[in-house]
Amino acid sequence: MSCKGNSNETLKRKVVYVYSPQYIETCDSLSKVPNRASMVHSLIEAYGLLQHMSIVKPHVATIEEMAKFHTDAYLEHLYKISQDGDNDDPQSGDFGLGYDCPVVEGIYDYAAAVGGATLTAAQCLLDKRGEVAINWAGGWHHAKKDEASGFCYVNDAVLGILKLREKYERVLYVDVDLHHGDGVEDAFSFTSKVMTVSLHKFSPGFFPGTGDLCDTGLGKGRWYAVNVPLDDGIKDDRYFQVFTSVMQEVQTLFNPEAVVMQLGADTMAGDPMCSFNMTPVGVAKCLRHVLDWHLPTLLLGGGGYNLANTARCWTYLTGTLLGQTLASEIPDHEFFTEYGPDYSLEISPSCRPDRNETKHLDTVISTIKDTFTHHLNVTVPLTLTHATHPPTSKPACWGCSGSRETQDVC
Ligand SMILES: [Zn+2]
């Protein structure tokens, strides 16, 4: 039996997969998701997908590379405490290290490995070695420039975006993790060159507590952050409907030249977060929507605390990219026993209710569309200056609010 919804004959992308045994071993050490990197890689391998991708060995990021975003003080402290796994350094609290981000020996090496892998993937896109580049062990979207947060010690997504910005004028970040991509949004909240779009659970007391509909960026970056707050229980069809409604506007008005997509799998049914009720089929439809733009696309992992379901999800997405239909039965491999009792690739949605009222979703979509219409339609001339078609009218000046990058067109 083949996995329904994965008939991807038309979708065969040239894909770079960042991998080395050492990299996987390093990522396996992350205490919140032990051995997850191995489980994901082993399932991708067991389905025979490696032979369809270019496998590229990641490099380890230098401190200078990580300092493109993170502060020297944070990186130096991470390096210092990493030597002996000192969890009691009094300064650690200032850098967000402790409770959610425990200090273990070698944590700096882990951060440098993840950061380097995403940089390697981004470089492959710049060098046109692939149309899509994957780092499933990346996507740590909560880390701030001087602070670890939410299991994230390095914000590799930010590093990847900065790398792509070396060549591409406008980079779009799309985050479908259960949690708000706050670290990435914060990093680019003052620029119009990077648009961040995050769909996430937004509920009192739910981490990180940011990402309300009205949070749209600051200064020159105002209107370039898009937040789609959702409630528990959302399933594939409605999620896809919201996603496409928002992304159509984003694509038209921002006209990105490259995309970074964070595909955290803590939205899956069966995740211990017990919030959304998604399956890999729904996420794959969202991914296909983005891939249909035919832009250089960097794919990252993220959350995902039901390790078997996370491996199912990212393997299914890898198959989607490669136009491969995957058998429902999990192939025999090292982690086979983790996939019981059904040993199948599919994830069935649970019977939990969808708490998202249609009226609320309609309001979210219409508010985002209105925001674009009233504030971002002046970007069309900017878009046209980079497009192959000449502008049909004289570009408008941005001067109306004085809060955006007037130098772009004036
Ligand atoms: Zn998450």
From TrEMBL:
<keyword id="KW-0479">Metal-binding</keyword>
<feature type="binding site">
    <location>
        <position position="266"/>
    </location>
    <ligand>
        <name>a divalent metal cation</name>
    </ligand>
</feature>
<dbReference type="InterPro" id="IPR023696">
    <property type="entry name" value="Ureohydrolase_dom_sf"/>
</dbReference>
<dbReference type="Pfam" id="PF00850">
    <property type="entry name" value="Hist_deacetyl"/>
</dbReference>
<keyword id="KW-0378">Hydrolase</keyword>
<dbReference type="GO" id="GO:0005634">
    <property type="term" value="C:nucleus"/>
</dbReference>
<dbReference type="GO" id="GO:0046872">
    <property type="term" value="F:metal ion binding"/>
</dbReference>
<feature type="active site" description="Proton acceptor">
    <location>
        <position position="142"/>
    </location>
</feature>
<feature type="binding site">
    <location>
        <position position="305"/>
    </location>
    <ligand>
        <name>substrate</name>
    </ligand>
</feature>
<dbReference type="GO" id="GO:0005694">
    <property type="term" value="C:chromosome"/>
</dbReference>
<keyword id="KW-0804">Transcription</keyword>
<dbReference type="InterPro" id="IPR023801">
    <property type="entry name" value="His_deacetylse_dom"/>
</dbReference>
<dbReference type="GO" id="GO:0160008">
    <property type="term" value="F:protein decrotonylase activity"/>
</dbReference>
<keyword id="KW-0539">Nucleus</keyword>
<feature type="binding site">
    <location>
        <position position="179"/>
    </location>
    <ligand>
        <name>a divalent metal cation</name>
    </ligand>
</feature>
<dbReference type="InterPro" id="IPR003084">
    <property type="entry name" value="HDAC_I/II"/>
</dbReference>
<comment type="similarity">
    <text>Belongs to the histone deacetylase family. HD Type 1 subfamily.</text>
</comment>
<dbReference type="InterPro" id="IPR000286">
    <property type="entry name" value="HDACs"/>
</dbReference>
<comment type="function">
    <text>Histone deacetylase that catalyzes the deacetylation of lysine residues on the N-terminal part of the core histones (H2A, H2B, H3 and H4). Histone deacetylation gives a tag for epigenetic repression and plays an important role in transcriptional regulation, cell cycle progression and developmental events. Histone deacetylases act via the formation of large multiprotein complexes. Also involved in the deacetylation of cohesin complex protein SMC3 regulating release of cohesin complexes from chromatin. May play a role in smooth muscle cell contractility.</text>
</comment>
<dbReference type="GO" id="GO:0031507">
    <property type="term" value="P:heterochromatin formation"/>
</dbReference>
<feature type="binding site">
    <location>
        <position position="150"/>
    </location>
    <ligand>
        <name>substrate</name>
    </ligand>
</feature>
<keyword id="KW-0805">Transcription regulation</keyword>
<protein>
    <recommendedName>
        <fullName>Histone deacetylase 8</fullName>
        <ecNumber>3.5.1.98</ecNumber>
    </recommendedName>
</protein>
<keyword id="KW-0156">Chromatin regulator</keyword>
<feature type="binding site">
    <location>
        <position position="100"/>
    </location>
    <ligand>
        <name>substrate</name>
    </ligand>
</feature>
<dbReference type="InterPro" id="IPR037138">
    <property type="entry name" value="His_deacetylse_dom_sf"/>
</dbReference>
<dbReference type="GO" id="GO:0141221">
    <property type="term" value="F:histone deacetylase activity, hydrolytic mechanism"/>
</dbReference>
<keyword id="KW-0963">Cytoplasm</keyword>
<feature type="domain" description="Histone deacetylase">
    <location>
        <begin position="33"/>
        <end position="320"/>
    </location>
</feature>
<keyword id="KW-0158">Chromosome</keyword>
<dbReference type="GO" id="GO:0005737">
    <property type="term" value="C:cytoplasm"/>
</dbReference>
<keyword id="KW-0678">Repressor</keyword>
<feature type="binding site">
    <location>
        <position position="177"/>
    </location>
    <ligand>
        <name>a divalent metal cation</name>
    </ligand>
</feature>
